[in-house]
């Protein structure tokens, strides 16, 4: 049994968005060793189907120190904004949204943890005043089964359809009324349905908002009366959700009114979006003068200015009627400082766009999405996702021509710990920024650029590499004053012994990328030689020095979302006078902060006493010419000899 291990973990069974502002968990850890251990507590949220993980959208980590020799209870808490979290639920295809908390003292790749599953419930109390409080009246003027340019065979239906309001709570009655007239056919019956539309985002590398859609009719009522029909919202109905964390879930509701007319095959269908919330909304008469009201499905706890996760389809309906266009010309990242503290804290994205218009026009929407992506083998997943939208007021008009707009990147917020973000690693780890002027579900981005992320802070793991280190094998000994070095400086190894004649040093990088799963996370491991340095030894006590490249990632033990681990080893191969070799593999730490080391001066080569050094006279050799005489013959091809004898003809 391990000397330090998690004995229990507990958390509330349900977190409610109307009550809770934190995810909390109580963890008990037994540490019977004499050392201080670090425990990692992770709150996870993911979409899966059985044991197959679709993607994670939450992986919040917290580290706590465990004192030696005691069994200590610990409290972990993270700040969350539950009105934006998708609720725990199952979908018709068998997939589901699950939340859990797990705690472990061992490294994540050992999968030695204790876990508990909990639920998230989301409530909706509309922010008032809201458009849904007012009655809706739809004037109907429709031709039924109109199959040509002539109205000779069509059957017109005229009148109005009305609802007292469009926001309802569970167990509340929805009344749909109408006053309709037909000229030729008689209305056979009316069918009213309450439809629930659920959209779940899929994980796809080429479409950031690809979704699966499920439609379910919660209630259905038929009537032959020509006045109204009513439905009761069932208690099992989901609340309306227009936005959620990472765009995981969208839930919409609508009233579907079908009018079946005699001698007509297909019914006439009218659809009216409604909102299902947790609190009854009082109906009001629409005021004579226009007043500002909320139109989006927005909870009272939502900030009215924070619409980063909202992709309104209503705004895009007017696109076809516009007589101007917006073209994004350039996308660039600015204000990234090369400091050793927080280089991304003030980073922003500058968008250069052109208004193609004759006169000043308003900028309806300029959207931005930032993703952190990992590609391991054939797998792709995201560990960071941020969206922003720029909407200017209707009174602000932009003149024709070129304009600039800056988006502040979110790395100044507490939810993104920039000190432990994984650095950019070629095609394996990337940070991509995409810009668009249309709704993101359309998946049309005019420009994109890459955000280069580096690491400038060392973690506490560096402390274990500061003491001196010595390895002795036979007649040779290697010594390091410390095993932590700064990238861009040098690895310094002292070789001691009288026999070494040749040394070969290899800086080896070992990399581990996380492959997330529902239960057991997997690893994608690789190894490469960063640099090789060889030299002959001409002195008794030799100091072997290798320069460390500056453009390599540092050693990484702790990482955001546990995406990456990087270890370095310095392999030393010493060839002795007799020709045999000694091999040493030394774990080292290549960090970002100063190592306080300087390259020592090499000792001069010691010449033995009574030795005489004689310079051989240099003499130019005469030109060499081969002359084939008659009595000399070349070797026949079938003769095998190992010397340069010449055959003479007898």
Automatic annotation (TrEMBL):
Comp. bias intervals (Acidic residues): 300-318
**Which InterPro entries is this protein grouped with?**
Arrestin_C-like, Arrestin_domain-protein
Which residues belong to the signal peptide in this entry?
A: none
Q: Which GO terms describe its biological process?
A: protein transport
Region of interest (Disordered), ranges = 297-324
Supply one GO CC term from the record: cytoplasm
Boundaries of every Arrestin C-terminal-like domain copy: 153-281
Q: Which PANTHER family match?
A: ARRESTIN C-TERMINAL-LIKE DOMAIN-CONTAINING PROTEIN (PTHR11188:SF130), ARRESTIN DOMAIN CONTAINING PROTEIN (PTHR11188)
- The entry's protein name is Arrestin C-terminal-like domain-containing protein
Q: Which organism is it from?
A: Caenorhabditis elegans
Question: What phylogenetic lineage does the species belong to?
Answer: Eukaryota, Metazoa, Ecdysozoa, Nematoda, Chromadorea
**What gene codes for this chain?**
arrd-28
């Amino acid at each position: 049994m391990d000397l330090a291990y998690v004995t229990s973990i507990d958390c509330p069974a349900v977190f409610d968005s109307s009550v809770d502002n934190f995810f909390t968990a109580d963890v008990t850890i037994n540490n019977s060793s004499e050392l201080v251990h670090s425990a990692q507590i992770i709150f996870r949220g993911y979409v899966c189907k059985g044991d197959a993980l679709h993607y994670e959208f939450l992986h919040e980590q917290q580290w706590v120190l465990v004192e030696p020799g005691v069994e200590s209870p610990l409290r972990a808490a993270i700040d969350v904004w539950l009105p934006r979290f998708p609720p725990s639920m199952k979908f018709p295809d068998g997939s589901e949204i699950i939340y859990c908390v797990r705690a472990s003292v061992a490294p994540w790749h050992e999968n030695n943890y204790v876990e508990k599953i909990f639920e998230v419930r989301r409530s909706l109390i509309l922010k008032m005043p809201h458009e849904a409080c007012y009655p809706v009246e739809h004037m109907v003027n429709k031709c039924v089964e109109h199959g040509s340019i002539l109205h000779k065979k069509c059957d017109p239906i005229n009148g109005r359809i009305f609802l007292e309001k469009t926001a309802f709570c569970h167990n509340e009655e929805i009344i749909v009324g109408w006053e309709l007239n037909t000229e030729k056919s008689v209305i056979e019956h009316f069918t009213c349905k309450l439809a629930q539309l659920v959209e779940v985002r899929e994980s796809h590398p080429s479409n950031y908002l690809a979704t699966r859609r499920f439609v379910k009719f919660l209630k259905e009522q038929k009537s032959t009366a020509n006045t109204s029909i009513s439905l009761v919202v069932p208690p099992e109905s989901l609340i309306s959700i227009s936005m959620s964390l990472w765009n995981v879930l969208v839930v919409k509701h609508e009233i579907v009114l079908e009018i079946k007319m005699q001698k007509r095959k297909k019914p006439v269908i009218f659809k009216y979006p409604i909102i299902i919330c947790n609190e009854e909304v009082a109906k009001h008469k629409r005021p004579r003068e226009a007043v500002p009201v909320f139109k989006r499905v927005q909870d009272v706890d939502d900030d009215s200015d924070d619409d980063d996760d909202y992709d309104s389809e209503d705004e895009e309906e007017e696109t076809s009627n516009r007589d101007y266009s917006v073209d994004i010309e350039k996308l660039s990242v600015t204000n990234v400082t090369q400091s050793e503290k927080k280089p991304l804290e003030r980073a922003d994205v500058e968008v250069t766009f052109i208004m193609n218009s004759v006169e000043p026009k308003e900028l309806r929407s300029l959207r931005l999405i930032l993703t952190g992506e990992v590609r391991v083998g054939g797998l792709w997943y995201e560990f960071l996702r941020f969206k922003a939208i720029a909407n200017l007021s209707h009174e602000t008009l932009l003149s024709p021509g070129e304009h600039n707009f800056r988006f502040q990147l979110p790395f100044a917020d507490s939810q993104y710990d920039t000190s432990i973000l994984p650095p950019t690693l070629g095609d394996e780890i990337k940070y991509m920024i995409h810009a668009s002027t249309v709704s993101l579900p359309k998946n049309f981005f005019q420009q994109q650029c890459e955000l280069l992320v580096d690491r400038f802070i060392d973690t506490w793991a560096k402390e274990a590499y500061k003491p001196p280190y010595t390895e002795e094998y036979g007649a040779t000994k290697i010594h390091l004053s410390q095993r932590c070095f700064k990238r861009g400086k040098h690895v310094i190894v002292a070789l001691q012994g009288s026999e070494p004649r040749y040394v070969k040093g290899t800086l080896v990088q070992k990399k581990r990328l996380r492959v997330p799963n529902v239960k057991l996370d997997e690893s994608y491991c690789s190894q490469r030689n960063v640099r090789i340095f060889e030299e002959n030894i001409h002195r008794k006590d030799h100091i072997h020095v290798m320069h460390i490249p500056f453009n390599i990632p540092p050693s990484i033990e702790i990482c955001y979302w546990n995406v990456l681990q990087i270890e370095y080893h310095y392999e030393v191969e010493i060839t002795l006078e007799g020709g045999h070799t000694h091999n040493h593999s030394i774990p080292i730490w290549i960090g970002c902060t100063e190592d306080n080391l300087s390259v020592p001066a090499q000792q001069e080569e010691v010449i033995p006493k009574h030795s005489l050094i004689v310079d051989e006279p240099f003499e130019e050799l005469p030109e060499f010419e081969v002359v084939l005489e008659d009595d000399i013959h070349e070797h026949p091809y079938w003769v095998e000899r190992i010397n340069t004898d010449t055959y003479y003809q007898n």
